[in-house]
Design a protein that fits this description.
By secondary structure, the protein is an alpha/beta fold. The protein contains 15 helices and 18 strands. Strands 9-8-7-3-2-1-11-10 form an 8-stranded parallel β-sheet. It has a 5-stranded antiparallel β-sheet with strand order 12-13-14-18-16, covered by helices on one side. A 3-stranded antiparallel β-sheet has the order 4-6-5, with no helix packed on it. Strand 13 and strand 14 form a beta hairpin. Helix 5 packs parallel to helix 6 and helix 11 packs parallel to helix 14. The longest helix is centred in the middle third of the chain and has 17 residues. It starts with 26 loop residues before the first strand and ends with a helix. The N terminus and C terminus are likely disordered.
């Protein structure tokens, strides 16, 4: 690994001040609190653990932290079943600890984003408990979607919608006298009843929640399932001809987000709204959410779901940039998150794309190949214009934990699939910090981590990689430092450079990034300075599944020099023999 960067820390996007639109080019680190670090020794990660590790995060070179839900919750879906937005789950800490964590992070130049889930609440939320206790047609039930069933005895669900986690999207209630009652809608688990966003009380409550966290120093919110909250009031059956869709990407959503944007912009240091928006076949519809009066940016799945292939990746990058350019928004790039098979494992498989519905047990993977590709993907992603989301543990090169005993699994996707789907626990296993055996410094005092860690992670701990040349951790640290020093941390223009069909080559300012997806090495141009490589070069040739960052003289206007050059005959022979 070659680098010409100094060790001095460059100012983060946060430290550039409130007027710098910090989020447009930030690197935002996703924290799954239960699995980051355990501060009190009970085997579950918590806010005290995160606060103790803040220096590590600052040294990494990121700009902001995004916390998945840390609120009180029965944990039917990993905390995305929220019972109280104004508190902290007791496993994780207290509201006072959250406020101190936000302030301590800001002192280190790190902003904080919190998660909100507008589509649904927990079935343990006071609103839903009151709704279950109330009769049909009551004001308490109007906050949700309660309906009588179909069929002579109301024994069939009100419509044919299915849950994202499998099975029907409806659950029938039981009346106080024990007889079957109305049904209620839940696009996810039965423990996550959907809210009725046509009710003004629902809108007022979430606007109050935004202010609650903004007032406590949160720099913004990430909006889970941002395209599903509004429903067709008639709740019709879903057919292949349903236009518009009865619950996805409905026009009513835009008025909601316009009101949220007014709240975010009302603060002296404006807060940021990040939407989880997945509309792969509708770039024009996607872009509507990012108009200046709505969301600032979107959590973008296009790169994450693409296979490791130059053509599809370039097409996804072009489509993403075009959609954002149309409304003046900044793109975002994501390789992994808490719902997705980890990058090292995914890129080592025959099918390197990702589809949550296609996950199965026992899929073979080549971890050495996957690691090589994940390293190259890191440099590609960090070279693109816009913001980058980095899921905890990706900077360590952690693979998916695929040998979790069935009795230790927690994810409802696994159970609602009848055990055929391995679920998402494998990417949520607690991080390894130090030592040569579990719990790898994640927890102290002898408690067992809430999910078991693989023994093989001994070589992947922070301690093992810290200062080790060529480690994934040092690759990320160097790339994040260079990203600022060469001007790639903004969301400015990018252009593709001429290259072969199995190579991606792009220029951003003084930075050129070249990635070789082919089987044969490709020659690099002679007039270059190598800043950083994801793997060793071979006689100025870029090997397969490897990326390089170069600094080259700025080309003259109209110069279309290739970022790679055809090798001479000896080089061709040498490449073929390699």
């Amino acid at each position: 690994m070659a680098a010409t960067a100094t060790t001095a820390r460059e100012p983060s996007a946060t430290e550039q001040g409130p007027g710098a639109d910090w989020w447009r080019g930030a690197v935002i680190y996703q924290i799954y609190p239960r699995s980051f670090a355990d501060g009190n020794g009970d085997g579950t990660g918590d806010l005290a653990g995160v606060r103790a590790r803040l220096p590590y995060l600052a040294q990494l070179g990121i700009d902001a932290l995004w916390f998945t839900p840390w609120y009180p919750s029965p944990l039917a879906d990993g905390g995305y079943d929220v019972a109280d937005y104004r508190g902290i789950h007791p496993d994780l800490g207290t509201l006072d600890e959250a406020e101190r964590l936000i302030a301590a992070a800001r002192d280190l130049g790190l902003r904080t984003l919190v998660d909100i889930v507008p589509n649904h609440l927990s079935s343990a939320h006071p609103w839903f408990r009151a709704a279950l206790a109330a009769p049909p047609g009551s004001p308490a039930r109007a906050l949700f979607h309660f309906r009588p069933g179909r069929g002579p005895e109301g024994q069939e669900p009100p419509n044919n919608w299915t849950s994202e986690f499998g099975g029907p999207a409806w659950t029938r209630t039981t009346a106080p006298d024990g007889t079957p009652g109305e049904w209620y809608l839940h696009l996810f688990t039965p423990d996550q009843p959907d809210l009725n966003w046509s009710h003004p009380q629902v809108r007022a409550e979430y606007e109050a929640v935004l202010r609650f966290w903004f007032d406590r120093g949160a720099a913004g919110v990430r909006i889970d399932t941002a395209i599903a909250s509004a429903k067709d009031p008639a709740l019709p059956d879903l057919t292949e001809h349903s236009r518009p869709h009865p619950y996805i990407d409905r026009d009513e959503l835009h008025d909601i987000y316009r009101s949220w944007r007014k709240i975010a912009d009302s603060y002296p240091d404006p807060r940021v709204l990040v939407g989880e928006i997945w509309l792969p076949d509708a770039p024009e519809r996607f872009a509507r959410y990012l108009r200046p009066e709505e969301l600032h940016t979107a959590f973008n799945f296009d790169l994450l779901s693409s296979p490791w292939d130059a053509g599809p990746l370039r097409a996804r990058i072009d489509a993403t940039l075009a959609a954002h350019l149309a409304v003046g928004a900044s793109a975002t790039w994501v390789l992994c998150n808490h719902d997705v098979t980890r990058t090292v494992t995914r890129y080592g498989r025959a099918d390197t794309s990702f589809d949550l519905a296609a996950k199965t047990h026992g899929t073979p993977t080549d971890l050495a190949l996957g690691t090589r590709r994940a390293r190259a993907a890191a440099l590609l992603t960090l070279a693109l214009p816009g913001a980058v989301y980095l899921y905890q543990g990706e900077e360590l090169g952690l693979p998916e934990a695929e040998d979790i005993p069935p009795e230790r699994l927690r994810d409802p996707i696994h159970f609602r699939s009848g055990g055929t789907d391995p679920g998402r626990d494998g990417c949520r296993v607690p991080l390894p910090w130090s030592g040569t055996a579990p719990p790898f410094g994640f927890t102290q005092g002898g408690a067992e981590p809430w999910l078991p860690q693989p023994e093989q992670w001994a070589e992947l701990t922070v301690e093992a990689q810290d200062g080790t040349p060529g480690s994934m951790l040092e690759l990320y640290r160097t790339a994040l430092r260079l990203r600022r020093s060469v001007g790639a941390a903004a969301d400015g223009p990018m252009r593709w450079l001429p290259s072969g069909p199995e190579v991606l080559a792009l220029r951003r300012g003084d930075l050129v990034c070249v990635v070789n997806f082919g089987e044969r090495p490709v020659a690099l141009p002679p007039e270059h300075t190598v800043l950083l490589t994801s793997g060793p070069l071979r006689d100025l040739h870029l090997p397969s599944d490897t990326a390089v960052w170069l600094r080259t003289p700025a080309p003259a206007p109209g110069d279309q020099r290739s970022a790679t050059r055809p090798p001479d005959e000896d080089a061709r022979r040498r490449d073929t023999d390699a």
